[in-house]
Specification:
The chain is an all-alpha fold and 247 residues long. The protein has one domain: TorD-like, CATH 1.10.3480.10. Helix 8 runs antiparallel to helix 9. The chain starts with 5 loop residues before the first helix and ends in an 8-residue tail after the last strand.
């Protein structure tokens, strides 16, 4: 693949993973990463591998919002998480795909089944032990990070055909899932947060997804509404076990 840089796939994978962890309920491991400065440091380091290098919009947004990721205690972060995202699905900015633009419970169930099938197609198993739904923003970001890592791994071990499979999967998931609903969620998140950590996280993730959509040349049909009805689903999430050897 002429001009292909596998390091870019690895960098994209790391950014997805870091953003994914930031959207989950704050725990000791993530707080340590944030408190010690590694969260910003890694985002800055890997952001330089994105298109346009050090001048890309992601790094600019990181400079603008950098202060939002400093100075919080773990308790303050937990309180802010509860205020903005809630300890159940937020009514103002729900972080789950099927809360957006899906008008019927059967459509929601089918969408979850489709997402689950996508995960399983790439060797990921659904875990009943974790607390987030399959369509949670953190889980979907983690899945994209997993696919980007598989692309990187395939470039070293399996050749161009396998690399292209991974790239096609990222393009498809971005166009049909994450890229459709996440922009609305992130706007609602920033409106609810108004400032601070989750406002900065929303702004940074929004810019990264714009970069990704330009990179993959996709133009997802945006979801422009939030559905008022609420349905209960099993709390299931993806166990992103590295099955790269089985690519």
């Amino acid at each position: 693949m002429e001009g292909y840089d596998p390091q870019q796939a690895f960098a994209r994978s790391r950014i997805y993973q870091l953003l994914s962890g930031a959207f989950l309920y704050p725990g000791d491991d993530f707080f340590a990463l944030l408190h010690q400065g590694y969260f910003i440091e890694e985002l800055r380091e890997w952001g330089e591998f994105l298109p346009d290098g050090p001048k890309n919009g992601f790094l600019q947004k990181l400079r603008e919002q950098g202060a939002a990721f400093k100075g919080l205690s773990l308790e303050e972060l937990k309180l802010e998480y509860g205020r903005v995202l809630g300890h159940s699905v937020s009514k103002d900015c729900p972080p789950c795909e099927t809360e957006y633009g899906v008008h019927h419970v059967f459509q929601q169930t089918q969408t979850l089944a489709d997402i689950s099938g996508f995960y399983r197609a790439f060797g990921l198993e659904v875990s009943q032990e974790q607390g987030e739904r399959l369509d949670h923003i953190g889980v979907e970001l983690e899945f994209m990070g997993f696919l980007a890592y598989k692309e990187y791994y395939a470039s070293a071990r399996h050749g161009e055909d396998k690399v292209q499979i991974c790239r096609d999967a990222q393009q498809k998931f971005l166009k049909e899932n994450l890229g459709r609903w996440a922009p609305l969620f992130l706007r609602l998140l920033m409106n609810k947060a108004t400032n601070g950590f989750y406002y900065g996280l929303g702004a940074l993730t929004e810019e990264f997804l714009k970069t990704e959509m330009r990179f993959f040349k996709v133009h997802p049909e945006p979801i422009g509404e939030l559905q008022p009805q609420r349905y209960e689903f099993d709390d299931t999430c993806v166990s992103c076990v590295n099955n790269s050897e089985k690519l």
